[in-house]
Amino acid sequence: MNQNRDFYAGLVATAFFAIVLFILIPIYVKVPSFIPGFAPPPDMWPRVIAVLGLVMGVLALILAFPKSRKASGEKVTTLGFYLNRNKVFMTRFAILLVVFAAFVYGLPVIGFVPATVLLLGVLFLMTGNFDRRFWMLGLTLIFPVLLYLLFTEVNHTPFPEGTLFSSSLSNLTTLI
Fold first, then answer.
1. What is the pTM of this model?
2. Gap between the Cα atoms of 82 and 17, Å rounded
3. Closest CA to 49 of 30, 25, 26
4. Are 160 and 128 in contact (CB under 8 A)?
5. Which end of the chain is more exposed for a tag (fewer CB within 10 A), N or C?
6. Cα dihedral sign, 49-51-53-59
7. Who contacts 144 (Cβ-Cβ below 8 Å, separation ≥6)?
8. Residues 47-94: pLDDT tens digits?
């Protein structure tokens, strides 16, 4: 990676995880006033992931500074040249932002399992590497179902079922 790409990747990661940690989690993750036993609060794992992402983004920013100081003698490229050179990556990033927004807004409608299957499918498609497409397809379909069953049956933590598929998921859990 060149120094600009490292810096911008760290900046985007830091901003994204800061927004998740300080804005989205306090607004959207409801924490009850009493949590029985030694059960973790519902916002524990989102906070852990957001803090780790924030630390990794800040670390990427810190590690990008020595590269930029060392490469300061290189010629400066314009923003248009940079965007033209990386238009495939920029297009993938824009598509991922739209898909992630659709995931967030579609989760209450179609539920956790179908929304996560669609999100993982798009994420695997965006990698562009189809050598292991059977693993990708298997993980796309099985991983969300296993997560759903683990949290609903073992931890008794309900996931959003959605208004569209709520009856089919409840039938699935009664069969198992």
1. 0.53
2. 25
3. 25
4. no
5. C
6. negative
7. 112, 113, 116, 117, 120
8. 988 999 899 889 888 888 766 555 555 565 666 776 777 788 788 888
